[in-house]
Amino acid sequence: GESVGLHLPTLSVQEGDNSIINCAYSNSASDYFIWYKQESGKGPQFIIDIRSNMDKRQGQRVTVLLNKTVKHLSLQIAATQPGDSAVYFCAENMNYGGSQGNLIFGKGTKLSVKP
Amino acid sequence: EAGVAQSPRYKIIEKRQSVAFWCNPISGHATLYWYQQILGQGPKLLIQFQNNGVVDDSQLPKDRFSAERLKGVDSTLKIQPAKLEDSAVYLCASSLEHSNQPQHFGDGTRLSIL
Fold this sequence. Notes:
A: mainly beta; five-stranded antiparallel β-sheet; B: mainly beta
């Protein structure tokens, strides 16, 4: 099976609340992780990334947390807005040597924001 | 900065026919990827190029799928002959150098096989 998975397939939040999307990975050799947002009919849009030598990284309204002990990744969205409604994918780079690897995507979590 | 361009946006063909997709990556990006995204799933890597060389094509069904990036810029992905299970969105992405850098995606080609 896939090594990257999501705990919740759907998430519904009230506008203005914070959202937390979780992701589990199984490959301890993965060295790079990305969160993508995908709206209907569009390609995945890069949100934020984190390398395995970090625990936390912040962007504009988003924070990614990496817990290597339990192989867990989360995306926090502050003050969720209707425009945040989309499917969110986590992806891990499974390094097979050198500087390259395979980006493995999970199945995605659908975030719905209620006005 | 212009994003990844893909064409066509939609394609409908009958099984056993052939189809080709085109991708123009972000200017200056050495690495180009083709992904297949089946409805309700995450993208799955088919092939990865660095410049005009293949880095990884282990997930490409080579009996029917082929891809090239002859001049290290644009790329084409071809399916011949198509099967019903090939119905999916075909996404192209590019990154500066390596797979452990952000990959930026085009909006894909939605392929329907009748």
